[in-house]
Amino acid sequence: MKLWKRLMAAATALTLTFGLSGCSAFDSITNGKRIIRIAHAQSEEHPEHIGMLEFKKIIEDRLGDKYEVEIFPNELLGSAQKAIELTQTGAIDFVIAGTANVETFAKAYEIFSMPYLFTSQDAYHEVMNDVDYMQQLYNSTDESGFRVLTWFDAGTRSFYSTKPIRTPEDLKGQKIRVQQSPASVNMVKAFGAAASPMSFGEVYTAIQQGVINGAENNELALTNNKHGEVAKYYSYNQHQMVPDVLIGNTKFLESLSDEEYAIFMEAAQKATEVEMNEWVKAVEKAKDIAINEQGVEFIEVDIQAFKDKVVGVQKEMLENNPDIVDMYEHIQKVNKKYEGKE
Ligand code: GCU
Questions:
Q1: Residue owning the nearest CA to atom 5 of ligand 1
Q2: C-alpha distances in angstroms, 40 versus 118, 147, 186?
Q3: pLDDT at 268 over 60
């Protein structure tokens, strides 16, 4: 972003965070156009940002006489939790956040924090790309003021640290950052580490200053968020596939005509397609940079040993949260289809 754009974004962020929360973005009309504000936590090179540029293009090509889309990357409008609140109140219109951040609003989203829920990437993609099936879940937060439009692939999460993790025992005594989700806290504890929930933007400094030893995420966290500069060991234990979701303010979405709504949904679907294509390339690139420029060691581990540690977590989640049972069973069926294929 150019400097003046950054300054404008920062000014908007301040106004939104301190001035407008609670008010509606309906007031934000510039040159006769309604400004649509979208927040996310990633850099401008990230597949999600590229996906949202497609979203912006489609909306402005088709509805440009009425709407202008502004994208705020890099947690400019605050952490995921904060940005969801801004979307809820209508201070902004859309936010991309990991489903872990939605758990506090709708318990059904906890399903995605279950360790080793999906047994293959194919099963994960099939479940998430089943737009009709996902609809019920996506609309379940309408009462909280927001609705999910689509999902984005955020890969597979594994541990990375300043100390190598070759077996689950290596996690003992380590302090690991997790997303602000109770299910993820329980998971990391079951692995034998101490869990330290914090927002994504705080992780780099926390590792650098030794407040935590490491974190868990996809490979892009090493490069796009520079965590590979401070944590040199990435272990492929692959405990979760946690999707990101595009969340929109319900009132805004319901204010659209049927035709406009269809265009917004189409733009969201296209953004997902673009993002998923970019994702594959981005992971390859991230690995290359992490190994060759950051000196990160990628460690292959015995995944079963990690799975064994969290069987109890899966059971406990199913017992304590009736909202996830249907989806769990649905996912098991899809998992079976792909067993032995990967
Ligand atoms: C990934 C994911 C984000 C999430 C982040 C985190 O980057 O795409 O949505 O917020 O992990 O661990 O907080």
A1: 200
A2: 25, 16, 26
A3: yes
Alpha-carbon distance 35 to 90, whole Å? 12
What value does the CA radius of gyration of the chain take, rounded to a whole number of Å? 20
Question: Could you identify the atom of ligand 1 that is nearest to the CA of residue 242?
Answer: 2
pTM over 0.85: yes
Nearest to 47 by CA among 220, 287, 293, 289: 220
Under a CB-based contact definition with an 8 Å cutoff, are residues 334 and 136 in contact?
no
CB count in 10 Å sphere of residue 201? 14
Is residue 20's pLDDT more than 60? no
On the CB side of 96, CA atoms within 13 Å amount to 31
CA distances from 34 to 49, 173, 260 (A): 21, 52, 13
Model confidence pLDDT, tens digit, residues 131-164:
999 999 999 999 999 999 999 999 999 999 999 9
Tokens 């296209």 correspond to what residue?
A: 270
Atom of ligand 1 nearest to the CA of 98: 9
Q: Which atom of ligand 1 is nearest to the CA of 220?
A: 7
Burial of 315 (0-12, 13-18, 19+ CB in 10 A): exposed
For residue 79, the CA-to-ligand 1 centroid distance in Å is 10
What is the CA(178)–ligand 1 centre distance, in A?
10
State pLDDT tens for residues 274-313: 999 999 999 999 999 999 999 999 999 999 999 999 999 9
